[in-house]
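=== How it folds ===
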Amino acid sequence: RLFAGRRVLVCEDSKLNQLLMRKLLQRAGFKVDVASNGAEGVAYAARYDYAAILMDIIMPVMNGLEATKKIHELRPAVPVAALTGATDILEIQKCMEAGLVDYLSKPVDPVALFKMLELFLSDKVM
């Protein structure tokens, strides 16, 4: 399986969304870490090598855009995708300018999530 054993980080401040994303990703075979804010996400990214990072944009302590920039300084090759409630084109453009490689609107569609992750991971060796 493409996802089996791959490690992903979910940066999300909503406990419900954390739980849902963890269960969904674990069922697909991922090892999942969860950060409750951007600063925690940066700390996790400094410690572990991730296949992909899913980043909420609006979080306490450090927002997702700032966290993404810091993560890219540490791990430039790791794809970081936005998890956002925003559908406004200007917000999406801000995400792309911050280095986010893709975005998913909340609530997250599992099919879209796994298609995106498959695209990110299909050319990577475990």
Observations:
- DSSP finds five helices and five strands in the chain.
- The chain has a mean pLDDT of 87.
